[in-house]
């Protein structure tokens, strides 16, 4: 195994950090306070090619391989103080563009990927609903075929980038009733047309915000990552061209499952950069801040706090790079991506808490960055599937049936 970065990867890392430090995040404090999307920084990311890193050159991207993309995102996370901007980039790439890259038709890719790389179209993933969060099979938004269109009805919630998005990847029900309110993911057979397995009743669509019947209705105010706007999207008889179906009808859940391993790992590459930034800050503070006549880093309690920050960073990097490598080799990475999602998101929370402790009151007060870092970190164990649900998936991958479905027979 070769753990070294190539000279090109090292160069890209250096160049990305320099770009992010010089050109991004100048107004983060005010944007965070106002929950404002940094549109000018978004445009700078587009100009710099960030929004097309994993997209092939023929569709307007930079064509980086998955591992190199991960290294670039790590560098972006390190250099950009605005974690919300990095999260917005990640939603655009791993909540939206990746669906087209992996499952889109030639026409869909040609039509949408270039403007997405150029930052002209902002992408989002509209999956969650008021009554369906972790339980994806329980979603209630419907899509009914009508000639060469599908008619969508329903409400999506918690959509990151939603208020500024132009294109949404939407999962909707094309057959059967929504399951009852039984066990999570019970998918109780509805017996309605399009019945069969609950997994075969969902379809994925690319929906543009400009269609009649698509409304971006409300914005949510969040604890952290406030510069990524989050909203609701309502579909009220929205007529979506059948050409915007992603994959085939009924394949939505399979497509979601085949794509989610990308989201669960690549979305968290930026966390590595944040962990490194927090570690460096903690070392610097523990070296310069003196109490009882010596630097506080000389106290074992503080030193161990910092040693643990380093351990978490290095282990998080190993599991994420492994997913990057697996995807570069075109191999399945569901188990590793699930482990990565749990470990990296939870490690960032622990590291942000440690950084706050090392800085004392300076960690707790506004204006010293760390309280924002902690608020931003807290979303990671929730979005892209909560830690509890990931642990359930991992247990099922290890052969324990019924952990999520509540059905030990695994029916
Ligand atoms: C910052 C942020 C950004 C987000 N961005 C998006 C987005 O862009 N698009 C989108 O569609 N959604 C988005 N979400 C929503 C996110 O995907 C959901 O919050 C998440 O899937 C959990 O759903 P829920 O909030 O409805 O919680 P619920 O599913 O109601 O879960 C509540 C609690 O019950 C636990 N629980 C539920 N089921 C099980 C089970 N089977 N086993 C064990 N525990 C269980 C959960 O772990 C959690 O602790 C975002 C959320 C956040 C916080």
UniProtKB/TrEMBL annotation:
<feature type="domain" description="Acyl-CoA dehydrogenase/oxidase C-terminal">
    <location>
        <begin position="250"/>
        <end position="396"/>
    </location>
</feature>
<comment type="similarity">
    <text>Belongs to the acyl-CoA dehydrogenase family.</text>
</comment>
<dbReference type="InterPro" id="IPR036250">
    <property type="entry name" value="AcylCo_DH-like_C"/>
</dbReference>
<feature type="domain" description="Acyl-CoA oxidase/dehydrogenase middle">
    <location>
        <begin position="124"/>
        <end position="237"/>
    </location>
</feature>
<dbReference type="InterPro" id="IPR013786">
    <property type="entry name" value="AcylCoA_DH/ox_N"/>
</dbReference>
<dbReference type="InterPro" id="IPR006089">
    <property type="entry name" value="Acyl-CoA_DH_CS"/>
</dbReference>
<dbReference type="InterPro" id="IPR046373">
    <property type="entry name" value="Acyl-CoA_Oxase/DH_mid-dom_sf"/>
</dbReference>
<dbReference type="InterPro" id="IPR009100">
    <property type="entry name" value="AcylCoA_DH/oxidase_NM_dom_sf"/>
</dbReference>
<dbReference type="InterPro" id="IPR037069">
    <property type="entry name" value="AcylCoA_DH/ox_N_sf"/>
</dbReference>
<dbReference type="Pfam" id="PF00441">
    <property type="entry name" value="Acyl-CoA_dh_1"/>
</dbReference>
<feature type="region of interest" description="Disordered">
    <location>
        <begin position="178"/>
        <end position="199"/>
    </location>
</feature>
<feature type="domain" description="Acyl-CoA dehydrogenase/oxidase N-terminal">
    <location>
        <begin position="6"/>
        <end position="120"/>
    </location>
</feature>
<dbReference type="GO" id="GO:0016491">
    <property type="term" value="F:oxidoreductase activity"/>
</dbReference>
<keyword id="KW-0274">FAD</keyword>
<dbReference type="InterPro" id="IPR009075">
    <property type="entry name" value="AcylCo_DH/oxidase_C"/>
</dbReference>
<dbReference type="Pfam" id="PF02771">
    <property type="entry name" value="Acyl-CoA_dh_N"/>
</dbReference>
<dbReference type="InterPro" id="IPR006091">
    <property type="entry name" value="Acyl-CoA_Oxase/DH_mid-dom"/>
</dbReference>
<dbReference type="Pfam" id="PF02770">
    <property type="entry name" value="Acyl-CoA_dh_M"/>
</dbReference>
<keyword id="KW-0560">Oxidoreductase</keyword>
<protein>
    <submittedName>
        <fullName>Acyl-CoA dehydrogenase family protein</fullName>
        <ecNumber>1.-.-.-</ecNumber>
    </submittedName>
</protein>
<feature type="compositionally biased region" description="Gly residues">
    <location>
        <begin position="178"/>
        <end position="197"/>
    </location>
</feature>
<keyword id="KW-0285">Flavoprotein</keyword>
């Amino acid at each position: 195994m070769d753990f070294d970065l190539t000279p090109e990867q090292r160069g890209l890392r250096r160049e990305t950090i320099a770009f992010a430090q010089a050109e991004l995040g100048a107004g983060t404090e005010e944007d965070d306070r106002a929950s404002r999307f940094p549109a000018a920084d978004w445009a700078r990311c587009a100009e710099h090619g960030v929004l097309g890193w994993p997209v092939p050159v023929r569709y307007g991207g930079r064509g980086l391989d998955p591992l190199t993309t991960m290294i670039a995102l790590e560098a972006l996370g390190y250099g950009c103080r605005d974690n919300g901007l990095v999260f917005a980039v990640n939603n655009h790439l791993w909540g939206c563009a990746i669906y087209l890259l992996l499952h889109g038709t030639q026409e869909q890719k040609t039509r949408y990927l270039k403007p997405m790389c150029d930052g002209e179209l902002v992408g989002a993933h509209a999956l969650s609903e008021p009554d369906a969060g972790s339980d994806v099979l329980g979603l209630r938004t419907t899509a009914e075929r009508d000639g060469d269109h599908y008619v969508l009805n329903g409400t999506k919630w918690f959509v990151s980038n939603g208020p500024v998005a132009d294109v949404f990847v939407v999962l909707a029900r094309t057959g059967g009733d929504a399951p009852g309110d039984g066990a999570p993911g019970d998918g109780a057979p509805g017996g309605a047309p399009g019945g069969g397995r609950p997994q075969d009743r969902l379809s994925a669509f690319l929906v543009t915000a400009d269609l009649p019947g698509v409304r971006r209705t409300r914005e949510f105010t969040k604890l952290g990552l406030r510069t990524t706007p989050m909203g609701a999207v309502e579909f009220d008889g929205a007529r979506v061209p059948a050409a915007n179906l992603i994959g085939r009808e009924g394949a939505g859940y399979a497509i979601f499952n085949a794509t989610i391993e990308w989201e669960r790992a690549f979305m968290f590459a930026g966390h590595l950069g944040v962990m490194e930034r927090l570690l460096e800050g903690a070392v610097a503070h523990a070296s310069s801040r003196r109490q009882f006549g010596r630097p506080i880093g000389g106290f074992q309690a503080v030193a161990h706090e910092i040693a643990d920050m380093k351990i978490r960073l290095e282990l998080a990097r190993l599991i994420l790079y492994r997913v990057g490598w697996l995807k570069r080799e075109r191999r399945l990475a569901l188990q590793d991506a699930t482990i990565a999602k749990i470990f990296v998101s939870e490690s960032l929370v622990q590291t942000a808490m440690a950084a706050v402790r090392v800085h004392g009151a300076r960690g707790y007060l506004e204006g010293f960055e760390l309280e924002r870092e902690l608020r931003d970190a807290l979303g990671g164990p929730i979005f892209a599937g909560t830690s509890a649900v990931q642990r359930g998936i991992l247990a099922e991958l290890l052969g324990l049936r019924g952990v999520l479905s509540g059905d030990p027979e695994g029916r």
